Amino acid sequence: MEICIWKDGLMIRMMFYQPGALVVGGVASQIFYFHDDTLYFNEQPTRALIEEPISILKNYQHILALAFAVKEVNENPKILPNITLGFHILNNYYTAQMTFKATLSLLSMQDRFIPNYRCGTQNRLIATIGGLLSEYSFNIATVVEINKLPLFTYGAFCPAQGDKTLFPSMYQMVPNEDYQYMGVVQLLLHFQWTWVGLFVLDDNNGDRFLQTVLPMLSQNGICDAFILRTPKQSYLAEMMELLIMKQEKYAVLVEKNANVFFVYGEFPSMQVLKTLLFAFHVLSLPPLGKVWIITSHWDFDSINVEGHFGTQTFHGALSFTVHSNEPLGFQAFLQTIKPSWVKEDGFIQNFWEQAFDCLIPLSDEDERSKQTCTGEEKLNSLPQTIFEMSMTGHSYNIYNALHAVAHALHAVYGSSPKHRVLLEPQDVQPWQLHSSLMKITFNTSAGDTVCFDENGQLIEGFGLTNWVTFPNRSFVRVKVGRLEPFGKALTINDSRIVWHKSFNQVLPLSVCNDNCYPGYSRKKREGEKFCCYDCVPCPEGMISDQKDMDSCISCPDVQYPSRAQNECLPKRIIFLSFEEPLGTILTLLAISFSLITVLVLGVFRKHQDTPIVKANNRSLTYILLISLLLCFICPLLFIGQPGKVTCLLRQVAFGIIFSVALSSVLAKTITVVLAFMATKPGSRMRKWVGKRLAYSIVFSCSFIQAGICVLWLSTFPPFPDMDMHSVHEKIILGCNEGSGTMFYCVLSYMCFLAIVSFTVAFIARKLPDIFNEAKFITFSMLVFCSVWLSFVPTYLSTKGKHMVIVEIFSILASSAGLLGCIFCPKCYIIILRPKLNNRAQFILKKNKKC
Fold first, then answer.
1. For 123-137, 181-195, 422-436, which range has the lowest pLDDT when averaged over its residues?
2. Which DSSP helix (H) or strand (E) runs through 372?
3. Taking the model in full, what pTM does it have?
């Protein structure tokens, strides 16, 4: 049997042969060519110079990988015993015409070109392996699909071209190309590169690439700094014309902000790009120190036109590479390669002569100027740009493709001896392999598992490789990451990556403008791409805690922006506590006034039978003193952490207690007036003078206030609340009054009682009575009203715990005013002037006044 493989761009002259390609061309009347990194001009080129092709020596490993795989299968008694595999290699010269011709020749007789006609049972074609480039794989597939011949592509294949419904007989040894694009997007996001230059093939594949990639980049916040279209292949004359056109765009390439270039292309388009870069170097344009991100098509090769510049430009490049591994025995197999195989290997002569710069004489008559090859040359002595000893990804794909065919054939023949007798090799048809290939799973000698999904694509991921180059044109592939199958996840080892020397091993930046750091937000620039923006500070009260935020955000209610507006800090909960200085002072004042009130009450109790205590209703005096004592204790409810009970009791207790105190003052004042009027002859007021009226006044006035408070508690009672917004950096824990209207109703009623008391006392202040309290009540009511009239605007203009302090101060001040103005004069007489506190003195002074 025979397995055919097409090799795109192999090492000999017939491979990638285009007369004058990348070697010679003309502009106007001058002829130019490259030699040793130097540009020369001649009037007339020689024929030898024009027809000398450029060979891609590295691709010779693909042939050796196929030969090694066939050798492995034929020597393995467990796979296809008594059956020998063979192979036939043809070249397509990188042209669609030659691809179709070579494919049709395989389907005809070996010595006669009659497409789709074969006779005999020898050299039966059972499968094809080909397609380093997607375009030529598509050309091959359109021919072999007619015969349902399995086709294995070992290079990249465009997803649209590789549709399983169009080519059910095709199997891709490289995962879907779209997965690489997903990996590139993840790579750009990982390093936060958002301003990327694109190098794209100038053909349908390039258009399809842009249609796929540009939306993916845009959806992930990445912009293209520029898009440079490069031709697939070109003669040098066309290259120089292209150079002249692209030179104007070179300023875009050296632009500092775009430090990352994403390249999509296939060989030989990559050669065009590298030759363009070399030409820029020859023209003394600034060097490009960039990060190159390249798909799996790319590789360093032996195109000498680039010289040292070709490898150093791509130092530190990152590429998604096809998975590869080293099969057992491959290194030993490479050591056996000798130029003496020239009769069996039609490619080795050209490879050997170009790689080692010597000649293999085919006859004694050959007279050539170069040195004759000794046959002792070693492949491991060649630079890596010419030949790599380790198996590359594409060679490994060819190796696995051959083993997949062998295992599928083995499955068709069966494993029992009777099946081998019943089924002869000539009876096997290519289409019979498909059912086995779709279900096949096997392990290679390198330890990898090979299997295909329902679309005939190899289930495998990509490796992320960092290319480290050296001045001697050697390089090292450093594996720095892996893209999981189907592009699900990309893992990167940042510490292993070597960047281009221009970055001094610092992570490169590739953004349209500097990042907007926390505390700033992005503002789009008019007329430019969304990756280009200005940075504006966050508005007051808002923050941005990450780089490049589109808008600032507000902090949660329990947090506040830092001074730099780059983070939210937790707010501190505050309330008027007993421990803080002001809380301590107010507490001491409340306790002190309470003790003074108790002392006054004790004095009056001790001297309760004296005239000054009996005057103006002794019981009212006790009620007033007790209510004042409670007024001084009431502020303690306002200090400390507010709770549900304290919030309910605060204003209610304050309102009712003060109403009792004011009612007592009013009752004492009315008692004075009635007592004076009752002394007139024939007055009917005598029946109103007495304790009953006084108690009725106190009870009725206090009951009205109590009713207001009950209505307040039953409708909108006070409750604990947190004020998040009054103070910038703090949460104020306090009591919400529930209904502000009811609160001011309580205050208004207190003020009404105070005004009535003040009015009555003012009228009775000059009544002839030695112990007349009206003048003292008048002054106390004046103090009381002054305090509470100033309380309202002050209370409304303060926030947080200062509102509580204002109310406590007003309670203490008004209560102290009542205590001092009414009881201090009496205490002065009782304690310091006891002689005045007797009935005789009282009658004497009364007679004098009369």
1. 422-436
2. none
3. 0.65
